[in-house]
Amino acid sequence: MKEHLELSSLGASLLAEAERISGDMQDWRRDFHQFPELAFEENITASKITHVLRSIPGMAVTSGFAIQTSVIGVLGSDIPGPALMLRATMDATAAEEQTGLPFSSCMPGAMHGCGHDAEMASLLGAAAVLSKYSDELKQRVVFLFQPAGEGRSGAKTLTENNIIDKFNIGRSVAVNWSSELPYGELFTRRGVMTALSDRIHIDIRGTAGHAAEPHMTVDPVTIAANLIIMIQTMLSREVDPREPVVVSFGQVESGEAYNIIPEQANLWGTLRAFDPKVRDFVQSRIETVAPALAKALRGLASVEYTRNYAQVDNNLDMVDELLRVGVPFFGEDGLNMLERPLLSGDDFAFFSHRVPSLFMLMGTGLEYPLHHPRYDVPESMLPFSAAWEAYLALTFGH
Question: Entry cofactor note text (predicted)?
């Protein structure tokens, strides 16, 4: 009971400190939001993060590790032993914003539709708060601002370039914001937290011609339409319905004129599943079905299947530790265990397969889901999220 009182007091102190810089966090978030940048192009974002980190006392800053736009800050550089890494992703989504906010995206075709702007601002806030508690740090803390989290595997590039050993990272943590969960509550689960996530590209070739004479052409658009239906039918009839799997095609491109049947069509989509054997089966069937169906309709099709992310695996000991230290911060009803893993993917998986890791969701409880053109975040959550990440750095492992 005494420990819980002490932890609760620490959480309150950190939250009060975060509230004092809430205006700064709001400014950072709005700045990131107004100037969103897509994967591997986060140059303005990286410059702003670097500027803020270098203003924090005791912070060692590394820019451009493995990826030109990556930014890494370290507090407690002289503390021996493995570090705890806190991660935020930097890139925006490819969408046109429709929020009407006065600080809406000024970058055509890009918006922060996943909350990365808020996650970066809150992690900067956590760094600023922790710098005032540097005498109480018992482990080094690595603040990773990671490029290319939206399907481009920035974490893969970083791990392949040995970020784990270079910064002696012993454990890693990520806190993502989720509009579909209740405001101010934290969610996680034991073991598998997210689905594996893959990228599918199907290139379809036909014979171009006049729209009034389809019999003189081979229509790749018709082939594409049949392929989409065929793949969905295959999932419902060839995969055990007790095995979750989703294939969605979010990008379909073909043609330049309404009255010309084009020569080519392209489908880009994604697969999400939990069982690697299900992935193997679906990949094999798509690679078989697409060329065969196209041939039956007198065309050609080729499949480029990219295995993006594995599942994020939450370390069981870290989940137990979270329950021990998290309840005094959130209260008994504010910390929740998900019954099922998410069908969304996250490249935090590359860290979770290298070191003990913990992936969490902070509920924001707003109307629009991730990737919606009207998606927004409650800025009142910024101090709370920053205090929580600072709290983790001071309590985890102790």
Answer: The Mn(2+) ion enhances activity.
